[in-house]
Amino acid sequence: MNSSTAPELEKSLIYMRNLGNCPPSYLNDPGRKDFFEIVWLKNEDALHALKHGDFEVKGDWIYLIPPYRVHQLNKAGKKGELISFKRAMLEGEDKEFLLDLFKIFNVQGEFSCLRLSKEEAEALSNIYLLLEKEYQQDTDGLIMVKALLKVFLLKLIQVKEQQFTVHDLHQKRVYEFLMLLESNYLQIRNTDFYAGKLGISSKRLNQILKEKLDKTGMQLIHDRLILEAKRSIIHSEQTIKEIAFELGFSDRPYFSRFFKKQTGETPEAFQKKAKEHVNSKFNTLV
Questions:
Q1: pTM metric for this prediction
Q2: Secondary structure of residue 7 in the 3-state scheme
Q3: CATH architecture of 169-280
Q4: Binning pLDDT at 50, 70 and 90, where does residue 6 land?
Q5: Which of 35, 175, 239, 269 is buried most, with the most CB atoms less than 10 Å from its CB?
Q6: CATH topology for the 14-163 domain
Q7: How far apart are CA 70 and CA 75, in angstroms?
Q8: Which one-letter DSSP state was computed for residue 83?
């Protein structure tokens, strides 16, 4: 499991690299869609726009990017680390840990960001060095890597714990809805199915989702479809017509109307913009 070789992401469970040495073979690999990504900037400015009143000062920033996201964070020339891992690395973990993890990765958005204090950065660095050492060993064993990855993730959860609310039933239902959605959105696009699986009414499910995510079940289903459409447009060689068919739309015009209604632009316009972005920003996380 030597990190000096280019990744074959489809076969890999975890991939680690220094940001300054992250090859295009990783950045352009469509297999990235299956990975959670941790982008750790060290003594750098933030990649995202800060809220009004925040000072743009250099520091340690951690970006937590969940799978299947269409993200465009330009980290070209930045100092820091990259950790990417598949959910299979978390097999056997308890539901509460996974719930905390999904919350810090902000699975209903494009990414989450943590600003680290000096003490937090130092604590994470100590864990990261152990994780990196095990990762670079020429061995197929993942036991130590998995254990140290969990320690690293638990530390990230601890960093953000003050923003957490008490685990309640509604939060667990949101988590369960998102997991059901991930497995079924291509086949089933009505809220009644998901509500039934959760043992509640569609009205109650929508109330919970509006409270926690500020969106209804149908809006989240549509968001997931658009997300997959964007990912396919950017990363696959399929035509718009083929993508529409794969996503379950009866014809291309219907898909185009749906896409424009949700995003404000046609699939073709989005495709052109994405290509221009890739061409103009080398070594960008896209």
A1: 0.61
A2: coil
A3: Orthogonal Bundle (1.10)
A4: very low
A5: 35
A6: Jelly Rolls (2.60.120)
A7: 15
A8: E
